């Protein structure tokens, strides 16, 4: 894989990250992500094209609006950089394959949903539900392109199984599991299932392991109590990322150790 291809995907990720900042700001407010054009929330002035270059504009403006000098959150360059890095990592993981577009899309919505859930404790239907159609279509195209229909079947089973598991947990303990998590679980199950049963197992378990460890640390540091509400969506997404990246290898090592 050439440096030019990696640089192109990094640039694409930065550009998508810039758009995700619009999604993160507007979707929880029920606003359109298409219009009106982006403007400073402080003075309302339209953001100029030269001030909308990912990361670079934030640095050149010294994190302040050109017109009213209101501070610009560090979230903007962080989201852009994170998306750029994730696009490169997804490229390295899958290469220029039929699966690549589907997992790039997953990386993008994963960033948006993580930040939104951390900020407002919600996983908006406006992102999750349309993603059912997008992910299904992208994985179907991948199955047609590769001829790997068993992977598509696993994806379908993974989505149903993880949805059902989260649905039952939500019924059993509604105070600790939101229905937004249930709907997200189906997407995560599909992505993990496409890769393999090991990825599905590790990705699903990883969410609870990572989220539980983080909660325990907060309790030990007295930053949260046992009944504190902690968004679980980000841990579902991080667990899925671990399952996609290392799930099959970890599962194979585990089976080798116990058999």
H/I helix tally = 9
Low-confidence stretches: none
CA-based gyration radius: 20 Å
DSSP, total strands = 0
Average pLDDT works out at 92
Order of helices and strands: HHHHHHHHH
Helix content: over 70%
| Count of domain modules | 2
Helix/sheet category: mainly alpha
What is the 3D shape? globular
How far is the N terminus from the C terminus?
37 Å
Biggest beta sheet attributes = none
Amount of beta strand: under 5%
Put the structure in a nutshell.
This protein is an all-alpha fold and 259 residues long. Helices cover 71% and strands 0% of the residues.
Folded structure, characterized:
The protein is mainly α. The chain folds into two domains: 1-96, no CATH class; 120-259, no CATH class. 71% of the residues lie in helices and 0% in strands. It is built from nine helices and no strands. The protein is globular. The mean pLDDT is 92.
């Amino acid at each position: 894989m050439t440096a030019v291809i990696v640089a192109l995907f990094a640039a694409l990720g930065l550009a998508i990250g810039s758009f995700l900042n619009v999604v993160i700001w507007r979707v929880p407010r029920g606003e359109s992500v298409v219009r009106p054009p982006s403007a400073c929330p402080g003075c309302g002035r339209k953001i100029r094209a030269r001030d909308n270059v990912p990361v670079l504009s934030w640095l050149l403006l010294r994190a302040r609006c050109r017109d009213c000098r209101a501070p610009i959150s560090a979230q903007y360059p962080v989201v852009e950089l994170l998306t750029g890095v994730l696009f490169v990592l997804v490229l390295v993981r899958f290469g220029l394959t039929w699966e690549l577009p589907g997992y790039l899309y997953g990386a993008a919505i994963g960033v948006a949903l993580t930040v939104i859930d951390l900020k407002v404790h919600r996983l908006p239907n406006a992102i999750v539900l349309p993603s059912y159609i997008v992910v299904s279509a992208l994985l179907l195209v991948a199955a047609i392109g590769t001829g790997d229909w068993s992977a598509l079947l696993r994806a379908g089973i993974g989505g149903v199984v993880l949805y059902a598991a989260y649905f039952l947990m939500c019924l059993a303990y509604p105070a600790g599991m939101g229905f937004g998590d249930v709907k997200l679980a189906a997407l995560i199950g599909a992505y993990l299932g496409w890769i393999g049963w090991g990825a599905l197992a590790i990705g699903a378990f990883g969410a609870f392991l990572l989220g539980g460890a983080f909660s325990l640390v907060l309790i030990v540091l007295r930053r949260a109590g046992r009944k504190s509400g902690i968004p679980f969506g980000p841990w579902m997404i991080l667990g899925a990322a671990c399952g996609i990246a290392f799930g099959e290898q970890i599962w194979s090592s585990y089976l080798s150790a116990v058999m």
